[in-house]
Structure formats: C-alpha cells, structure tokens
C-alpha cells in the first residue's frame, strides 16, 4: 500500500467517524426538539399500564372468558390464554396464513385481529373441526393426499381450505391455487394441497 493510499484510508476513516458522531448528535437533537416524551438515553423507560378488557371468545362451541390487554391478538389469546396451540404463529404479520381460523365462518388471520375485536364471535380452530374420532373431510383429504411435510402450515391450510370450499372457490385447480394463495407452505407441498382441496370439494359436492 502506498503512503497516499494509507493517507486516503485514514482520511476516509476519520470522515466516517465524523459523520457517525454528527449523526448521533443530530439524532439526539432531533429527538429533543421534536417533543418526543418516551425517549430516554441510558435510563429505563416506564411504559404506562396497558388497559385490559374482559372478553368472551366462543371457541369451538365453548365460551371462554379471558381478561386480556387490549393489544393482545386473537392468535396470542387462543394460544396463550385459551391453551389451544393448534393455530400456529409463523410470521405474526399477516403474510403466511399459518394462524388462519374461522370467525363466524369466515377465514381470518388471527395474528391480524385483536381478541377484543372478536368478543362474542364464533371462532373455529383446527381443534374444533373433527367430530370425536371422525376427521373433517378436509383433514382426511390432507392425510390421504400427503399434503404436508413438516406440518407447520397445515392447520392454517386446512382452515383456509374449509372456508375456500364453503365459499365456492374450489371449482378448478387454478381457482383453488388463487383462493388458497394467502397460505404459504415453506415445504412446497402445493400440488398435494391442491389435490386434497379438490378431493374434499368433490366429496362435499357428491
Ligand atoms: Fe398470521 Fe403469518 S402468523 S399470517
Ligand atoms: Fe412444512 Fe407446509 S408442510 S410449511
């Protein structure tokens, strides 16, 4: 490396540090002048107590009374308060469909709705589909068609398929693919999932 290179390098380093310093000072200055009240540097912040609400969730035909913070999602209420862990948390931001449940018969991504918003509604989860030892036709079709590998997406796929068929959106493979497109499968079991949904839809039509 030449002297000039070394000089250039240290000059770059110097200017980079300067920028970082200026940036940090600027950020604090902006925070201070912006009227932000929850900023604390090097000190613990204390959040105000969250408001809670008494909610009645009618899950799989059983009334469940829970007291939850108003920011708790339906997904977390089901898994952590009601104890039904068949509904899975994948992305927790509405992208994968692993958390799909039925609310008043409509498919809903339970990570995208708050428990307090579903007060008094009829919620069906994967645990509520079978009748005793008898699987729901969609569950049976998924097993028959080997429509899963790791199974993480499967409860969401099955709930979505139940609604897809009920909505009348399972008339062709292309339609099934389109109307099931909100449910992702990282194992790539899509062909088998489509087969299973088609079978179940045919079975219900016969
Ligand atoms: Fe709800 Fe992914 S966990 S959409
Ligand atoms: Fe593994 Fe779908 S079966 S993610």
Strand order of the largest sheet: 2-1-5-3-4
Q: Helical element count?
A: 6
Per the principal axes of the C-alpha atoms, what is the gross shape?
A: globular
CATH architecture of the largest domain: Roll
The CATH topology of the largest domain turns out to be Ubiquitin-like (UB roll)
Structure description:
There is one protein chain. Helices cover 41% and strands 13% of the residues. By secondary structure, it is an alpha+beta fold. Strands 2-1-5-3-4 form a 5-stranded mixed β-sheet, sandwiched between helices. A hairpin with a 2-residue loop joins strand 3 (100-103) and strand 4. One FE2/S2 (inorganic) cluster binds next to loops.
Keywords:
5-stranded mixed sheet; single chain; binds FE2/S2 (inorganic) cluster
How is the secondary structure organized here?
Layout: H1 3-33, E1 52-59, E2 62-69, H2 74-82, E3 100-103, E4 106-109, E5 122-124, H3 137-144, H4 154-166, H5 173-179, H6 190-205
Parallel strand pairs: 1-5
Antiparallel strand pairs: 1-2, 3-4, 3-5
This protein binds FE2/S2 (inorganic) cluster (2 copies).
One FE2/S2 (inorganic) cluster binds near residues 150, 185, 186 and 187.
Question: What is this structure, in a nutshell?
Answer:
Helices cover 41% and strands 13% of the residues. The protein has 206 residues and is an alpha+beta fold.
């Amino acid at each position: 490396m030449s002297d000039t290179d070394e000089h250039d390098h240290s000059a770059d380093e110097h200017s980079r540090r300067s920028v970082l310093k200026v940036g940090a000072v600027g950020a604090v200055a902006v925070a201070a002048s912006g009227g932000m009240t929850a900023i604390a540097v090097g000190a613990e912040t204390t959040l105000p107590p969250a408001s809670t609400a008494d909610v009645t969730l009618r899950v799989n035909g059983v009334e469940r009374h829970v007291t939850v913070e108003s920011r708790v999602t339906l997904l977390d209420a089901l898994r952590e308060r009601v104890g039904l862990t068949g509904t899975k948390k994948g992305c927790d931001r509405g992208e994968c469909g692993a958390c799909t449940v039925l609310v008043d018969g409509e498919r809903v991504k339970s990570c995208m709705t708050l428990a307090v918003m579903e007060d008094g509604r009829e919620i069906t989860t994967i645990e509520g589909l079978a009748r005793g030892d008898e699987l729901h036709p969609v569950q049976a079709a998924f097993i028959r068609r080997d429509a899963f590998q790791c199974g993480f997406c499967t409860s969401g796929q099955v709930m979505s398929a139940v609604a897809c068929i009920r909505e009348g959106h399972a008339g062709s493979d292309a339609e099934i693919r389109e109307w099931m497109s909100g449910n992702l499968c990282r194992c790539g079991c899509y062909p088998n999932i489509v087969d299973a949904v088609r079978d179940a839809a045919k079975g219900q039509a016969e």
